[in-house]
Specification:
The protein has a domain at 47-126. The chain contains one helix and six strands; from the N terminus they run αββββββ. It has one helix at 3-20, and strands spanning 51-55, 66-70, 81-86, 92-96, 105-108, 122-126. It is elongated.
Length: 128
């Protein structure tokens, strides 16, 4: 038998063994194997911190102050430390929040001494 014929015969034998289930650990399908995807909701969405942050204050055109609004569903306790960064920039800082209820805002005075265009967005996250 040639080398090619030997390899072809061996391959055919392996395929036959797999097809008939004659291999030592046979696999079998049972039940519905379809997968359904569903949107998973957080267990307590009121605990997810969301913020709206913008440059606002004086001087009017390039304010050096920030307004941070709690857009999450829960109250943030006093002493919660946040970091902020102006969008598309390396200008950043940190701040310790007072108690901040949902939709309540805090005015951070002189947060950005160099100023930023009025209404410029900033990103905020809680420091763990």
């Amino acid at each position: 038998m040639t080398r090619f014929a030997y390899k072809t015969t061996a391959f055919a034998a392996i395929l036959a063994a797999l097809a008939t289930g004659a291999v030592a650990g046979t696999y079998q399908r049972s039940g519905d194997t379809s997968t359904t995807l569903q949107k998973v909701k957080p267990l307590r969405p009121q605990l997810i911190a969301k913020f709206d942050c913008r440059a606002q204050g004086t001087p009017v055109e390039f304010p050096d102050d920030l307004v941070i609004v709690n857009k999450g569903g829960g109250t943030l306790s006093a002493g919660t430390k946040i970091n902020w960064r102006m969008e598309n920039s390396f200008v950043q800082g940190s701040y310790v929040l007072p108690t901040l209820a949902p939709n309540q805002q805090v005015f951070v005075n002189n947060a950005n001494p160099g100023g930023w265009p009025a209404g410029g967005k900033c990103l905020v996250w809680i420091v763990k």
